[in-house]
Write a structure and sequence with these properties.
By secondary structure, the chain is mainly alpha-helical. It is built from eight helices and no strands. InterPro entries: ABC_thiamin-permease_prd.
Length: 212
């Protein structure tokens, strides 16, 4: 038995280490910075989205959900950079808290949205056991956040909506989550990594590879 165990240890891939999912102080600090900065961006997007929504809504009912990604990226970006359980949920919820405290048109219900949207992204990262952060996983996290947003909005803001509206809203929200929250967060993380700002994170140490 001893010989077998030793053989297994020797045959393990070189450099293989067990992932440590405990949060470090630097994880908390950087996740908090992402959450607060995202919350400020949310406030800007709150104002910018109004005229844009006015242009999209007449084209097709429910199409305004294409703008939803502007409120979804915090969780995806946080999860992508921190790579620890709870990171996506924490950053998205913190961004919602900042948006609520400074003031927006939705009030405390923004916290519900932040919680649900953060969970949408968090569940995708959890599905891959917080070990896979390739582009397709990040896009799926954006899609998860978009789907969560759509379901939450349809329940809170559009109860009893026609099936056509609900379908268009859900599809538009998912597309927005993939493109804005997913793809843009991917490029943002790669850009930050190249500056050296993420050197203390896995996202920064392998910046030059296909998977950040």
């Amino acid at each position: 038995m001893h010989a077998t165990t030793s053989s297994l240890k020797q045959s393990a891939p070189a450099g293989a280490t067990k992932r440590n999912f405990r949060w470090r102080v630097v994880d908390i600090v950087v996740a908090s910075v992402i959450g607060v900065a995202s919350g400020v961006i949310f406030l800007v997007w709150n104002q910018a989205s109004n005229p844009l929504s006015g242009l999209l809504s007449p084209l097709l009912p429910g199409l305004s959900a294409l703008l939803g990604g502007g409120w979804l990226f915090a969780g995806v970006l946080g999860g992508l950079i921190i790579r620890k359980p709870g990171a996506a949920l924490y950053t998205e919820l913190l961004a919602a808290v900042v948006s609520t405290l400074i003031g927006n048109q939705w009030g405390p219900l923004t916290l519900v949205s932040g919680l649900v949207q953060g969970l949408g992204a968090e569940l995708v990262f959890a599905l891959f056991l917080y070990t896979n952060y390739r582009l397709y996983v990040v896009l799926l996290a954006g899609a998860g956040a978009g789907l969560a947003m759509a379901i939450n909005d349809l329940v809170l803001w559009y109860p009893g909506s026609a099936s056509a509206f609900a379908t268009i809203y859900i599809v538009s929200a998912i597309i927005s989550g993939v493109v804005i929250a997913g793809l843009l967060s991917w490029f943002a993380a790669r850009g930050l990594a190249r500056t050296g700002a993420l050197n203390r994170f896995a996202a920064g140490r392998i910046a030059g590879r296909t998977a950040i």
